[in-house]
């Protein structure tokens, strides 16, 4: 029996984002149409992992998703004020924080495309403000 879906999303474990991510997935037509990998720091696990096993774990999930569910897309979703990065206080300015996340996701994208050139990789930054309001930025 085969069952296919469109995408795999890699996002952080942070509970503050769950409802917003669920809504975002719904808006994109991805509810019940994507595999979900949730790891602290999301793309950080591929670029500067705390545990050296993390890159292999993430790439393995993509491989399984690709083989089993025939995904065509990987969505990398980091978020601001991420504990795995030391939170927003770890950065001097919000621009620094933004470019750290974007840079890590772009490196992660390259790494994924090297192993899975047939997949499309999208980069999304989930931004949370001090009032805990969340919005999503699509990075080109
Ligand atoms: Zn996080």
Automatic annotation (TrEMBL):
<dbReference type="InterPro" id="IPR036874">
    <property type="entry name" value="Carbonic_anhydrase_sf"/>
</dbReference>
<dbReference type="Pfam" id="PF20393">
    <property type="entry name" value="Pro_CA_2"/>
</dbReference>
<protein>
    <recommendedName>
        <fullName>Carbonic anhydrase</fullName>
    </recommendedName>
</protein>
<dbReference type="GO" id="GO:0004089">
    <property type="term" value="F:carbonate dehydratase activity"/>
</dbReference>
<dbReference type="InterPro" id="IPR046871">
    <property type="entry name" value="Pro_CA_2"/>
</dbReference>
<dbReference type="GO" id="GO:0008270">
    <property type="term" value="F:zinc ion binding"/>
</dbReference>
């Amino acid at each position: 029996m085969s069952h296919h879906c469109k995408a795999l999303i890699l996002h952080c474990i942070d509970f503050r984002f769950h409802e917003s991510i669920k809504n975002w997935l719904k808006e994109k037509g991805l509810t019940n149409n994507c595999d979900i990998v949730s790891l602290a720091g999301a793309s950080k696990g591929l670029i500067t992992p705390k545990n050296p096993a993390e890159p292999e774990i993430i790439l393995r999930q993509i491989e399984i998703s690709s083989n089993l569910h025939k995904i065509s897309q990987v969505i990398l979703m980091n978020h601001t004020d991420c504990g795995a990065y030391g939170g927003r206080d770890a950065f001097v300015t919000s621009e620094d924080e933004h470019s750290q996340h974007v840079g890590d996701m772009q490196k992660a994208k390259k790494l994924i495309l090297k192993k899975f050139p047939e997949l499309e990789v999208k980069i999304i930054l989930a931004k949370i403000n001090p009032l805990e309001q969340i919005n999503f930025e699509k990075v080109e």
